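Entry 12.
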Amino acid sequence: MKIMDEFSRAKGEAWASQVIERDGKFYSEKICYAMNRSITGPWEYEGIDRLYYNEDGTMKRIQMTTEGVQ
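Predicted 3D structure (tokens):
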């Protein structure tokens, strides 16, 4: 993954924003990351965690931790 190509237009923080429709409701989403121990790379795509939904169609809360998203 060429991380600098992915974020070349970002100023400050970089987000991969999109809108998801589920059961007539729309959700804004900004998820995706790459990881490496060196700022110069090579970067490894780490993907995203699966989103889970409540019975009413709203998204369940995502808890971010120092170990990653739970």
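Annotation: The first helix runs from residue 3 to 6. Residues 3-69 form one domain.
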